[in-house]
Amino acid sequence: MHDPHSPASGDERQAPYPAPSSGQPPPSASLPDLYSDLFSGGNQSGGGTGTGGQTASWKTGSDPSAGRGAARVTRAGGGSAVFAAPPAPSSRQATGLPLSLLCDLLLKQLYLQRNLLGVQLARHLRLAFPIIEECLRYLKDEKCVEVSSGELVGPASYQFCLTELGRNRAREAFEQCRYVGPAPVTLESYAAQCRLQTVAGSSCTPAALKSAFGSMIIRPGLLDEVGPAVCSGKSIFVYGPPGNGKTMIARGLGRFLNTSGGEIYVPYAVLAENSIVTVFDPTVHQATDTEHPEYGQSAADAGQSPLSPAGLSSSRAWSEGSADLRWRRVRRPVVVTGGELTLDMLDLRYSRTSNFYTAPLHIKANGGVFLIDDFGRQIVSPRDLLNRWILPLEEGIDYLTLATGRKFPVPFEQLIIFSTNLEPRELVDEAFLRRIRHKIRIGPPEREQFTQIFRLCCAQRDIPFEETAVEHLYANFYDQGKSPRSSDARDLLEIAASICRFRDQRPILTPELMAEAAARYFCQV
Fold first, then answer.
1. Which residues of the chain have pLDDT under 70?
2. By the number of CB atoms within 10 A of the CB, which of 21, 110, 306, 344 ranks highest?
3. pLDDT for position 499
4. Three-state DSSP class for residue 79
């Protein structure tokens, strides 16, 4: 596959823009002074187009992104992690992105929007205007953009549009890659951020866990097993007979980390091996920051012109902020899959039409929880699925493959939970069990616990609780060799309520009603 963003030396593109035709109309004669003001910095662009191919130097503990997007972390009084936003790059070189990639993103935005202010272009790319000013200068020199109008309040207020040559170049850029949006971050910056915001860095105490699981009725001592597993940030294997709350416990862990595990930062996209991989997914990542509106929206809401001094002042404050707006602040993500999981879902999803990639589910779950429910019932065999993850579980690194066949490493930094009601020894071998550090068995409830669950289910359905109903179940079923299940209380009460609704009766748990519901529920098929 042709690589549209291969690195070049200096400020020259690997495939320079073609020279303009002699018939290209010049910019309006009234605009040279605007160009002079806009590009008053002269040729101040530094050499080098940033990193092209990505390396795996972050695996060894070095931090190649220090000083250009690496986040900082502090501890609040309660011990929870408070992550500072990745700092905004101060120059194009600090972004680590090649000039050609940024120019293509600008061309595609102008092609779609026709005319945009300089600050609007900066907001689309989520970069400060001084950074894209270098790209606009280059595009102007190549006769690809021109200034169609402008105010005298600053170069960010000038309105840019494409020349005919620029439109042709934008169409070529679309053919190479149809991604349009915020500029990506480098793979090194993404890896450094993932190392700082691992699940192991979240605060997990007995009091916090008890509060999160307060509405659940669980066996004594279970939280003492769950807590250390969360603190370790390693994988968890939850197993036991069906119907006893394995999925509820696993989802409860995800809810706990999502609401109490702090907030992390996720990039819109990552540049890996000169290919764009989108990471931020609104269906997975619950943003907690306020998305910056497009330029002029807030000014219009206030009854001001986007080009008014107040509007430009607000825009300048946005552009000169200290946070890198290519990242979104989100709650720790929780990704749940079941029997539909296949090996293809763990690989990059490549669009041959758009020529860019979407990150797989487990990469979107970095910094959060990846729950594989009903493990062993997937279309793919458990052995193949586990073999796919032996190396990531051991080293915290996964390798993804591009359409070109090239591989690159990515962080594998999520709390992965396997939940199954099958016998573990029938699913996995000792080599894999060794890599799953924490095994938690969820067994049948004791009678006291079952009674509490039954009482809670009655209260949730506005059915008067009767101790005789529980006694009937134990005398006729559970004491006769049938193992009780935590889900039995919910299911039996739903059947009893359905019977009463059909007969237009008020639900009262008489022995006769419980016997009829149990006969329907426990019948052998």
1. 1-82, 150-154, 291-321, 524-525
2. 110
3. 94
4. coil
Give the per-residue pLDDT at 17: 32
What are the helix and strand counts (H, E) for the chain? Answer: 20, 19
Q: Which of 393, 431, 378 is nearest to 235 (CA)?
A: 393
Bridge partners, residue 236, by sequence: 417, 438
Using CA atoms, how far apart are residues 310 and 412, in angstroms rounded to an integer? 45
| Vertex 359: Cα angle to 204 and 5 (nearest 5) | 130
pTM of the model: 0.77
One-character DSSP codes across 313-333: HHHHHHHT-SB-TTEEEEEPP
SS3 68: coil
DSSP one-letter string for 395-453: HSEEEEE-TTS-EEEEE--SEEEEEESS-HHHH--HHHHHHS-EEEE--PPPHHHHHHH
Task: State how far the Cα of 121 lies from the Cα of 145, in Å rounded to an integer.
Answer: 13
Q: Choose among 254, 245, 252: nearest CA to 449.
A: 245
3-state SS, residue 264: strand
Q: Which helix (H) or strand (E) holds 195?
A: helix 187-196
pLDDT digits (tens, 9 = 90+) for 288-329: 887 544 333 444 344 445 455 545 554 454 555 578 999 999
Q: Give strand ranges (E) for 66-183.
A: 73-75, 81-83, 115-117, 145-149, 159-162
Q: Are the CB atoms for 82 and 74 separated by under 8 Å?
A: yes
DSSP single-letter state for residue 287: B
- Report residue 103 as tokens: 């120019």
The length of the chain is 525
* 400 φ/ψ angles, rounded to the nearest 5 degrees: -110, 150
Per DSSP, the residues of 90-114 read: SSHHHHT--HHHHHHHHHHHHHHHS
Model confidence pLDDT, tens digit, residues 221-241? 888 888 888 888 888 888 989
Helix (H, G, I), strand (E, B) or coil at 232: helix
Rounded CA-CA distance 140/128 in Å is: 19
Residue with tokens 């004669």: 29
- Kind plus residue range of the DSSP H or E element containing 254: helix 246-260
Q: What single DSSP character describes residue 236? A: E
d(CA 485, CA 499): 22
Tell how far CA 164 is from the center of its chain: 39
